[in-house]
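User: We ran a pulldown and think these components assemble together. Before we commit to crystallization trials, I'd like a predicted model of the whole complex to look at. Sequences follow.
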Amino acid sequence: DQQVKQNSPSLSVQEGRISILNCDYTNSMFDYFLWYKKYPAEGPTFLISISSIKDKNEDGRFTVFLNKSAKHLSLHIVPSQPGDSAVYFCAASVSGGYQKVTFGTGTKLQVIP
Amino acid sequence: DAGVTQSPTHLIKTRGQQVTLRCSPKSGHDTVSWYQQALGQGPQFIFQYYEEEERQRGNFPDRFSGHQFPNYSSELNVNALLLGDSALYLCASRLVGYNEQFFGPGTRLTVL
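Assistant: Here's a predicted model for the assembly, 225 residues in total across the polymer chains.
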């Protein structure tokens, strides 16, 4: 039962353009969402998060949008840079206490110079 | 400020053996979670420790057990290793009640 889904295994984008990574979830109890970036041979690095009380959160070139009614979130990277090439994981949790974090399967982003 | 550290980096074992992986959390963090990441998959939650007790557990058999020490470091033990246990094992730490976790580089376990 995959509660967090990233349906695009890979994405290629030209440098300077916008990268849009998508994520869907099925568990209505999830109220906190995170994006992680992972380079080969390294652990995931926290990128940006959003609480269910918001529909948008920005941090520099990264913006996450949350559509609760559609159970969908997306990560926008503008402008995309070659150093952004990595695997991006969407994750979700029920906030507070001893919550466990559920990850999607990841999207491999390649930014072409 | 040291981040999350894990040891060893790589490990090769044979079926039926037992393995222990170690994790030191980021300074100031008190909660440690362990994840298994198989090739091509996202990290799968194994369990979480806080105040030296297992607080949450994912869908993993009892062959997977853990421990947290008074200094918040943690161990993951896997008994009776199977070929399917080959994966990257990730440790993550955070402060209890906070959502952001910080991951270590992982331990690559290969079971032959």
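Chain B touches chain A at residues 4, 31, 33, 35, 40-45, 48, 50, 55-56, 58, 90, 92, 96-97, 99-106 (CB under 8 Å). That may be worth checking against your pulldown data before setting up trials.

User: Thanks, that helps.
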